[in-house]
Amino acid sequence: MYLHSKFPIQQRDLRLRSVAFAARNVILDFGSAWAQVQLFTHTNLQIYTRSEWYDTICLVDKNKRGFKIGIAFEFEEWVLAFPTMDFLICVYWRVDRESLPSSIQHDIYDDWLGFLGAVVSWVKIMKPKNDRGMLAITAVRHATMELSPAQLAEGRTPQRLFAGAGVYTVVEFFFLAGLSPSLTLYDLLHEGLATGSRLARLLVAFRQIAIHARLNIWNIIRRNLHGWLIAASVKDRLRYLREFYVYGKDISYVTPRQKVLLGSEWDLFEPSHLHVAMGYKNNLGYLIYGTEAWPALAEAAGLSVGTPDDPLSLYFRNVFAKGYPTPRSLCPTIYTELGLYIKKLGKIQTNTYFYRNTTGDKCSIWSIYDVDVPSLTRLTGTPREQQLLKEHISGSLHYNVGPLDFCGVARVVSSQGKGNHKIMVCELDPRLPDFYVDRRETSRVMMTLGTDTTLNSLPVSKQPTKRRRSINMHDEDTGPVISSSKLPSAVKRTKRKGADALLLADAEGDLVVQEL
Q1: What does DSSP assign to residue 145?
Q2: Domain range 18-94, CATH class
Q3: What does residue 268 show for φ and ψ, rounded to 5 degrees?
Q4: Tens digits of per-residue pLDDT, 293-315?
Q5: 3-state secondary structure of 73
Q6: Which residues make beta-bridge pairs with 160?
Q7: Which of 101, 196, 296, 413 has a CB 3.0–4.6 Å from the CB of 192, allowing a cystine?
Q8: CA distance readout (Å), 370 to 257, 263, 377, 433
Q9: Are 5 and 93 in contact (CB under 8 A)?
Q10: CATH 3.30.200 occupies which residues in the chain?
Q11: 8-39 pLDDT, tens per residue?
Q12: Which H or E run contains 436?
């Protein structure tokens, strides 16, 4: 896990000075050293009290608590931990921030122009390949940044270009950009020889999501903080589905303008969804709408016309000698007649379609486009229903998507009494009364047997036991342990083996590895 062989595991005088975030990375400044924790699928961040950490996490077997711990940093009163489903986590140690892998990535919120420059480099590499088979939605998820000779000499590894654009995020910004899931990488890039509108819309849609995440998601998380611990009930998790446009949704909502476009040859693009991002500088308006239409559209919508001097617009300027042409993928009249921003959009229900790509990684793709192409297989009936997020949340034990459903999010367990609930830090939380743990275990068993299962219908072999949870404590320890003087008195002499290997950064200055 520790990728820098020259940085020792044991290091004195480390104090956390600041924390920064870069897409899927958490950057920790310890003064004389920097750590980058790269979060892959189903890896999260939680801040535990010492009681939550020592009296719950450390005492429940990693295979029973519902998640593992990839790495954790212990301070005087708190533990900063990174729960993970299957140790898909990567940690880098460096002596300065510039040496961290994330330093070459361009955060789309903080460094929009740098990001656009990296996109231009990617386009220059990918366009000559003329790949007509790869779907654009797949190519975007896997796109990597071009490394300079100096970066290659430093031993840098390629980083994702669309950092943070995972399976569900890319589906969401394809919806916002009005793009079909059947669009190929070839069509996306070579449309640039005609207008460049689709690529520009895609990038602005990604920017819109980044802005929303930076400015608004914290308000949702804050409502679900118990101390510093993120905890969510089933109701909380279902409520979060309102944040999604199309991914995992049984139905989606479109505007009257999009309803008119459904089934037509034009892209199903609603510019009102991107109004916030278009209000920022360098909004790519000329590329999206063309030189002739953009100034009047921008003025009517209260947007800045701006100057097309960003890296992407400058790149396409060399293609279009007479200005940016009117895009062929957008209906030429529907935006001039209705404008770019409709304050009251209205909500019209429309069907969603669930696909899996037939080549490459077969990920879930949701869309309001009804397409029939060899590169996508449409799933209907039970296979589709099983992938609905509401079904995952209400009827399965799986973690899903969104900040309230990542690995390690604590669960809110309620009794039948109104307003009487407990926070379960992990499964089999030994701090809770038996009633709540048994209730949670009963629900878990019933979920595994199907949504029609009732408590009375459970077979005897599946009936929940009423005895206290079993916590396996081992008599021997095969690894180095933290000094007993630094442990809370309740677990001072507890020794275990076989669970997670944690890196604990003690606030007093020592870094040690502990086998819990």
Answers
A1: P
A2: alpha beta
A3: -85, 65
A4: 999 999 999 999 999 999 999 99
A5: strand
A6: 144
A7: 196
A8: 17, 8, 11, 51
A9: no
A10: 18-94
A11: 555 556 889 999 887 778 999 998 899 999 88
A12: helix 434-449
